[in-house]
From TrEMBL, chain A:
Gene transcribed to yield this protein: LOC107269601
Family: Belongs to the bacterial ribosomal protein bL19 family.
Keywords: Mitochondrion, Ribonucleoprotein, Ribosomal protein, Transit peptide
Gene Ontology molecular-function annotations: structural constituent of ribosome
Keyword Transit peptide: yes
Keyword field contains Zinc: no
InterPro entries to which the protein is assigned, alphabetical: Ribosomal_bL19, Ribosomal_bL19_sf, Translation_prot_SH3-like_sf
Protein name per the record: Large ribosomal subunit protein bL19m
Compartments, record wording: Mitochondrion
Entry's Gene Ontology BP terms: translation
Cross-referenced Gene3D superfamilies: 2.30.30.790
From TrEMBL, chain B:
Region of interest (Disordered), residue spans: 252-279
Ribosomal protein keyword on record: yes
Organism taxonomic ancestry: Eukaryota, Metazoa, Ecdysozoa, Arthropoda, Hexapoda
Gene symbol of the encoding locus: LOC107270201
Protein's name in the database: Large ribosomal subunit protein uL3m
Species the sequence originates in: Cephus cinctus
UniProt-listed Pfam families: Ribosomal_L3
Classification via PANTHER family: 50S RIBOSOMAL PROTEIN L3 (PTHR11229), LARGE RIBOSOMAL SUBUNIT PROTEIN UL3M (PTHR11229:SF8)
TrEMBL record, chain C:
A biological process term (GO) from this entry: translation
Gene Ontology molecular function: structural constituent of ribosome
Organism: Cephus cinctus (Wheat stem sawfly)
Protein name: Large ribosomal subunit protein bL17m
Keyword Ribosomal protein: yes
Gene Ontology annotations for the cellular component aspect, listed alphabetically: mitochondrial large ribosomal subunit
UniProt KW keywords: Ribonucleoprotein, Ribosomal protein
Domain of life: Eukaryota
Sequence similarity: Belongs to the bacterial ribosomal protein bL17 family.
Lineage: Eukaryota, Metazoa, Ecdysozoa, Arthropoda, Hexapoda
Keyword check for Lipid metabolism: no
């Protein structure tokens, strides 16, 4: 991922004065038709927000430590046996909790809209705020990171943030929702309107106890060339991908229908339930306390907000 | 007829005299010079063979239990849990000897044996991200000390009088049933359980330690520089691109069958041969390598873990390595380290649980902020 | 460092698995590998004890264990589970056997459901390592041959004598300490 970011940053054109000074900036490669849309135009909301019961997790009601795995996937170690060591994992978790006690890292998923404030020695005011949609979450432990995407001055911009980086001053979840896919990298090949978000967006408040809404918005991709072979990825959030016959045939040949039955492959890519229980039992109470304080803060904020009268 | 025969035999005997008395055959000197000689396993004479073939002994369950009980009563329970210092009882370990001399520059003290347990990032106070390798000092005990007169290494440098003694350190206690009787006998002096790995550190005689003394991670201080010796990851037979970082050849433009090959390995003419040391495919890794001048960022004294700067420490995760004060002249400590080692019984103030180098950002510190310079 | 996949929740297997899968080389590639595993798995569920090459036995062992543990977790009502069982078990009757025989048998097991024994190599023949793979709790007599007279072996005799002496000493010590306590209390 880093490589891709660097590469595309190298290709990137001169950006606006403000964004040039941000740390890691990515210009979307397919930027031929980006003059049609301006940055300030808010995204037209096509899909209605629906509640997908199977995927969603009840918020504020994470009574079962096992349910934490969706909210805090980075607490699970890398399943590769050659990297595992119980003591290292324990120390890493302790460090993560120490960092979490100093900064409020909100609950968010791929598809949520976040605002991140970073202290930056080169920025004018020594800090930089970026708003964007989270298109990918990866890494585990202290290496956990996420990519935010937005369109600034008709230019696609992506920034990779480390979740536990101490230069991050604040992370705000402006809109908490999920999308149909686990990665939204296809937004790079979608029209700019799908990844354009206003920098002065107000945080949307979801009532407590309701499940995380799943936005079943379906995206239409721009015409080829694309950055990746999207027709092979079984994307749920993309409407009718049309490719030529040759590519279709190749995609058909590359199918691996047995992989979803491969029990050992599934086992090797995940952490068994017993170990997950052990891990979350260790950090659960602290995480839960942090969550409660966060909710309290939120309630105060909603209370303080002034209401216009008369 | 007989005359002719006689003359013939005399001629033969004369020709025999002409031949050289000793048959000399010249043998080609094989493998005389190598540019990068493989490190040889030099087994010290005093160390018996550690392991033996395990046969099925048919020991009854009660007797197995009994053996375990005896071992536990003698040495204490084995090291269970997350790297806690084992509570092994050493019958010979009295109160450790008091250090007799003050530390002076140029003195060499012992090293420790550590287990590489993983790599994860840390941040410095100026906001830069660095990767750190976690090294756990597991269950280290001094096994034996050999004075300079006594110590005779297998390979000695000529004409140099040995002024350094040798300290044998062992790491990771094991079940004595897995080892030979002779190997277990090595640990009689120190009174600890047989160790999985032994290490040899050359020390000045002033830094000698009593056998049975435990070594901790607090032997070092954050900010110190250490050398780490370990066996690199065995990658097997590899091509030049992976082994030496060659560029390979283009993927297209008429290139066939030579995408990952090295290309030319020499010119013709008078040098019509392959020069020694030419980088070519071959076995990669599984070699002892020393990385020098690695800085310590942080130490946890509860679990005996050391955070060393950099992800490039040789060896796989969960492999054992040797760690000692650096020999690089510019990075040697100017202030006194714990000499001869950190001894909790002697120390007046016990060390804190977490020790950090000055420039490292602690995870429970507030966020890093940069202040605007006012002109 | 990759994030663990959290969509599936699995039970821990009770034996050490290989970090990487075996390819089980064949001319059809990965689908051929799957077919090989399907066949062996079905045979294992049919006969409960089979002798085969070690590599294949070791590879199939994981799949057999995982299938049983999934069946215990989800039960026959689950559609995905039924799909899985139909995929791996070629013959329908053994799908029934899985849910009716093996699930009740292994419900409360705290150890692995299968056992892998090393078997002697064939001579003359193909010189590959061979193994016997069996489901635990099968009706056949045990493969392992235990020494019926192990307690009269010399080292065991000596050890048991030493044990008795050790116990006697311990009891003596305890008795002495009891006596001392009585004396001090009086």
């Amino acid at each position: 991922m880093h490589g891709a970011l660097k590469m595309s940053a190298a290709v990137g054109r001169v950006l606006s004065q403000q964004m040039r000074q941000s740390l890691k900036v990515l210009k979307s490669l397919a930027g031929k038709k980006n003059r049609c849309f301006s940055a300030s135009v808010p995204i037209p909301k096509e899909g209605s927000v629906s509640n997908n019961e199977q995927k969603s997790v009840n918020r504020g009601k994470s009574a079962d430590p096992l349910e934490c795995r969706f909210m805090y996937p980075e607490f699970l170690p890398d399943p590769k046996p050659e990297y595992r060591n119980s003591l290292r994992e324990k120390l890493e978790r302790a460090d993560m909790m120490a960092r979490r006690s100093k900064i409020d890292i909100p609950e968010f998923y791929v598809g949520s809209i976040l605002a991140v404030t970073v202290s930056d020695p080169h920025a004018p005011g020594k800090s930089n705020r970026f708003v964007g949609i989270c298109i990918k979450r990866s890494g585990c432990g202290l290496r956990a990171n996420f990519i935010l995407r937005n369109v600034v001055d008709n230019q696609g911009v992506e920034v990779l943030y480390e979740l536990y980086d101490p230069t991050i001053q604040k992370i705000d979840c402006l809109r908490l929702e999920k999308r149909l896919d686990n990665e939204l990298l296809y937004l790079r090949d979608a029209p700019e309107e799908y990844s354009t978000f206003s920098f002065d967006m107000e945080p949307e408040i979801i009532p407590e106890g309701t499940p995380v809404p799943v936005n079943d918005l379906k995206v239409t991709l721009k015409p080829q060339p694309w950055l990746e072979k999207w027709e092979r990825k079984d994307l749920k959030g993309v409407r009718d991908i049309v490719v030529n016959q040759k590519r279709e045939m190749k995609a058909k040949a590359a199918l691996k229908p047995w992989e979803k039955y491969d029990l050992m492959k599934i086992y090797r890519e995940t952490i068994p339930e017993e170990e997950q229980k052990e891990i979350f039992a260790e950090v659960y109470s602290d995480l839960h306390n942090l969550e409660i304080t966060r909710q309290k803060m939120k309630r105060q904020r909603t209370f303080i907000r002034p209401k216009k009268s008369g | 007829m007989s005359l002719i025969l006689k003359t013939l035999t005399s001629i033969q005997s004369f020709s025999n005299l002409l031949k050289p008395g000793i048959e000399v055959t010249t043998l080609a000197k094989r493998g005389a010079k190598r540019l990068n000689p493989y490190p040889k396993k030099r087994h010290p004479g005093w160390l018996p063979r550690p392991t033996h073939v395990l046969y099925k002994d048919d020991i009854t369950p009660e007797n197995t239990k009994f053996i375990k009980e005896v071992v536990e009563t003698r040495f204490g329970k084995p090291d269970v849990g997350l790297g806690m210092q084992s509570k092994s009882i050493s019958p010979l370990r009295n109160e450790p000897i008091e250090p007799q001399t003050e530390w002076k520059e140029g003195m060499r003290r012992t090293g420790v044996i550590a287990k590489k347990i993983g790599v994860y990032p840390m941040w410095l106070k100026d906001g830069t991200k660095v990767l750190s390798t976690l090294l756990q000092v597991i269950d280290n005990h001094v096994i034996r000390y050999m004075s300079p007169e006594e110590y005779a290494p297998v390979i000695q440098r000529n004409n140099i009088r040995n002024r350094l003694g040798c300290l044998i350190v062992g790491a990771e206690s094991m079940d004595p049933q897995l080892f030979t009787k002779e190997y277990c006998g090595v640990f009689n002096e120190s009174g600890v359980l047989p160790k999985r790995m032994l290490g040899r550190f050359l020390i000045s005689p002033n830094a000698a330690l009593q056998p049975g003394t435990p070594l901790y991670a607090a032997h070092f201080k954050p900010g110190d520089y250490v050398d780490i010796r370990g066996k690199t990851i065995d990658r097997g037979f590899q091509g030049v691109m992976k082994r030496w970082g060659f560029k390979g050849m283009p993927a297209s433009h008429g290139v066939t069958k030579t995408h990952r090959r090295g290309g030319n390995i020499g010119s013709g003419g008078t040098k019509a041969r392959v020069m020694p040391g030419t980088k070519m495919p071959g076995h990669m890794g599984n070699r002892w390598r020393v990385f020098r001048g690695i800085r310590i960022l942080r130490i946890n004294t509860k679990y005996n873990v050391i955070w060393a700067l950099g992800p490039h420490i040789p060896g796989e995760t969960n492999s054992l390595l040797y760690m000692y004060d650096t020999v690089l002249p510019t990075r040697k400590p100017s202030t006194a380290p714990h000499f001869p080692t950190y001894l909790p019984s002697i120390q007046e103030n016990p060390v804190e649980e977490e020790l950090w180098a000055e420039d490292v950002h602690r995870f429970d510190d507030p966020c890093i902020e940069f202040i605007e310079e006012t002109k | 460092m990759n994030q663990a996949n959290v969509t599936h929740l699995v039970s821990k297997l009770k034996f050490n698995i290989r970090p990487t899968p075996r390819r089980l080389k064949n001319k059809d590639g990965p689908p051929g590998r799957v077919l090989k595993i399907q066949k062996t798995l079905t045979a294992l569920f049919e006969y409960e004890r089979i002798e085969l090459f070690y590599n294949r036995a070791d590879e199939v062992r994981g799949y057999a264990e995982r299938l049983i543990s999934e069946a215990i977790r989800r039960g026959p009502e689950d559609h995905e589970m039924m799909d899985l069982a139909n995929f791996w078990i070629i013959r329908k009757e053994f799908v029934h056997k899985l849910f009716k025989v093996y699930v009740p048998r292994y419900q409360d097991y705290s150890i692995a459901y299968t056992k892998l024994h090393k078997a002697p190599r064939l001579y003359p023949g193909i010189y590959y390592k061979r193994a016997v793979l069996e489901l635990r709790g099968n009706p056949y007599p045990s493969i392992e041959q235990r020494n019926a007279h192990s307690n009269v072996l010399l080292h065991n005799l000596l050890l048991s004598e030493a044990r008795k002496e050790y116990r006697m000493e311990k009891y003596k010590e305890i008795a002495e300490s009891m006596n001392e306590r009585e004396v001090t209390s009086q």
